[in-house]
What we know:
Elements: H1 3-7, H2 14-17, E1 22-26, E2 29-32, E3 37-40, H3 43-46, H4 55-66, H5 79-93, E4 101-103, H6 109-124, E5 128-132, H7 141-145, H8 150-154, E6 163-166, H9 180-187, E7 196-201, E8 204-205, E9 211-212, H10 215-228, E10 231-235, E11 259-262, E12 275-278, H11 298-311, H12 316-338, E13 344-349, E14 352-357, H13 361-372, E15 375-376, E16 378-380, E17 386-389, H14 397-417
Parallel strand pairs: 3-15, 5-6, 5-7, 7-10, 10-11
Antiparallel strand pairs: 1-2, 2-3, 4-12, 8-9, 11-12, 13-14, 14-17, 16-17
Helix pairs in contact: 4-11, 5-11, 12-14, 13-14
The chain binds pyridoxal-5'-phosphate (PLP).
Residues 108-110, 113, 136-138, 202, 206-207, 235, 237-238, 263 line the site of pyridoxal-5'-phosphate (PLP).
Amino acid sequence: MNIFQEVESEVRSYSRNWPAVFDVARGSELWDVDGRRYLDFFGGAGALNYGHNPPALKRPLLEYLERDGITHGLDMHTQAKADFLTAFRDRILKPRDMDYKVQFPGPTGTNAVESALKLARKISGKESMINFTNAFHGMTLGSLSVTGNSMKRGGAGIPLVHATPMPYDNYFDGKVPDFLWFEKVLDDTGSSLNDPAAVIVETVQGEGGINPARVEWLQGLADLCQRHGILLIVDDVQMGVGRTGPFFSFEEAGIRPDIVTISKSISGYGLPMALVLIKPEHDVWSPGEHNGTFRGNNPAFVTATAALHEYWSDDTLERNTIRKGEKVQEAFTRIAKDTTSVELTARGRGLARGIEFAQPELAAKVCATAFERGLLMETSGPSSEVMKILAPLTTTDDELDEGLEIIAESVKTVINGA
Ligand SMILES: *Cc1c(COP(=O)(O)O)cnc(C)c1O
């Protein structure tokens, strides 16, 4: 029995799939205590879009700590926060003609989602939410109430209420017109639908199995919300900060959500940080109405600011993400085509990519086989039927080729052994 089995709770999960003790990490590589190297296509579940310990972020962080820059500051004004807000305004909001207000909730994704739900209820005076099938929004009660997965919902131990699920894009394999049910129950005074405050949506469902919504579907949703006076919340916790190419995953659709949640890769260094972006007319919070001890994670502001300057002063990262994503899609499509005995489907957007296995249990087997060959990736989807990669956007072409080769070999090994 090791220290983890002896002391750590049964709730631990990733460590069960990857029984190594990791110690050092750089870029897209990890090393365990025995010096074994792994390629990281898991990417901190989307928290490491710039890889592990990127030097351009580490240097300012070390300098900040060395000079006793403020680490903990609640929501006091600090120089580090001023620098972040200035960089976020100038590098992200202004060039996109977005005049959103920035709220710092507690430093996790689920805290951003809880804030967004609270705020939408306060703005609208309504309590009901619309969420989508297979959505994932976090593990606290409000976020779970708009999350699809029954195992995760079950953990709440109480009824999860005030949300109505609607079919996500392609839920009926393209056989049903978009929003057929949604529009019908909204317009029908006999439908029993509670008048919704807001719709919460992911543009690509990450935990839900790398399901990208089509641009037309997202535009249709924004239009529906506008026509019916429903607030639109985009949860960009996993797909934002460049994962799909542009900084915000909804840019391609040209939509303007009322509220946007951001977390995971915003600090750029794997440090906890979250944002809620609010259209100015909706910033109806009273002072302190939502708060949190770790809103002012100043070391995260320092690395986040450095990341905005390093990666978002031109479109190099965005273009490379799209190019690398296409390369992964080609490789996955080839793997699917070469596998005749089981149906595989490649899908995703940008560098959020996956392969769906018609026999769900094979996805986990491929991930386990890839781990033996030194590659980290995880499964997602309601039956864990999707092998998912969120490789750092900074993964080099050589590393990408190496990982894709391991994936192709692992699929072959598992299918031939099945
Ligand atoms: C990870 C995730 C969350 C929750 O973030 P935590 O930091 O784990 O609380 C919320 N929404 C989406 C889309 C996520 O991927």
